[in-house]
Design brief:
methyltransferase activity; 7-stranded parallel sheet; about 20% strand; Alpha/beta knot; 5-stranded mixed sheet; Ribosomal_eL30-like_sf; 11 helices; 60s Ribosomal Protein L30, Chain: A; alpha/beta; 12 strands
């Protein structure tokens, strides 16, 4: 059994550090709170730089958390019950949590080095939906995500970390303006496929595309913007019961990524991303040739 130090003194610098990171509004976000065992372990595996990991004095820390911290030499302490009550007055008290430094933002240049499909979310603002899409994207091998007009200022948003179960740091996620995102896809030539109720392709047709794709999904209320649609190679529809108004955007993303999982997960073509500090400037993968079974790009 591991004997861990217990924080009982309110003047301990860690107490103020935790209090600061739990504030709902901060002008500058340099650290992020990672809560619960599964997100903690995932963020440690993703290479996030942790200042310290904590557990509640009344609850033993899970073995997988301790093992992950030991492997990365992350300091671990327990927090006394009175201090836990002060720090998390109205919130659900986490049994395990950590304070990590926010990594620098991903760039489009880094995104271009992946060979997996890119999810583009145009005007999707509900953080729960974005978090679910992040988790599904990682699980089904997507190369990265572009968030356009999401109202998020950082991927280290505490709500997004919770909703994604910590996977928000496990793949490239770029926050971008619509103009910058469109310029990126024009420059790289990655085919943009827009999801629409009147699409010219069925979602099953995506299985025939033997190349990297950018899968564009809009909000349930407004759909995708006309500026994005103007550069789309194809539009794709998902068949649903006519009596149903629409599908949740995270469900649409899951269906699309399932149809593309044979490409994104095949032979684990993309090696795991190293920690942010160790990423090299290696060039982008060349991808695979296009099979004629997939319809060619529409001219615009």
């Amino acid at each position: 059994m591991v004997n861990l130090d217990v924080i009982t003194d309110r003047s301990d610098p860690a107490v103020q550090r935790i209090a600061d990171v739990t504030k709902p509004s901060r002008s500058v976000v340099r650290t992020v709170l990672i809560e619960d065992a599964e997100p903690l372990v995932e963020c440690i595996r993703a290479g996030l730089e942790f200042i310290e990991v904590y557990g509640a004095e009344t609850t033993p820390l899970p073995g997988e958390v301790l093992a992950a911290c030991r492997q990365r030499e992350i300091p671990v302490r327990l927090v006394g019950a009175p201090i836990m009550n002060d720090l998390f007055k109205t919130d659900k008290k986490p049994k395990a949590f950590g304070i990590a430094r926010v990594p620098r933002p991903w760039s489009f240049d880094e995104l271009a080095r992946t060979t997996g499909d890119i999810i583009v979310l145009d005007g999707v603002k509900i953080v729960g939906n974005i978090g679910a899409i992040v988790r599904t994207s990682f699980a089904l091998g997507a190369g990265g995500i572009v968030l356009v007009d999401s109202d998020l200022t950082t991927i280290a948003d505490r709500r997004l970390v919770r909703a994604s179960r910590g996977y928000v740091f496990s793949l490239p996620i770029v926050l971008a303006s619509r103009a910058d995102a469109i310029a990126h896809f024009r420059r790289t030539g990655v085919p943009l496929v827009a999801f629409d109720t009147e699409g010219d392709l069925a979602v099953g047709d995506l299985r025939d595309a033997d190349e990297q794709l950018a899968l564009l999904l809009g909000s349930e209320k407004t759909g995708t913007s006309s500026s994005f649609e103007s550069i789309a190679s194809h539009s794709v529809s998902i068949p649903i019961n006519p009596a149903a108004e629409s599908l949740n955007v995270s469900v649409c993303a899951g269906i699309a990524l399932y149809e593309r999982s044979h490409w994104n997960l095949a032979d684990r073509r993309r090696a795991p991303q190293p920690p942010r500090a160790e990423r090299s400037a290696a060039g982008r993968g060349s991808g695979r040739p296009t099979r004629p079974a997939y319809p060619g790009r529409r001219s615009r």
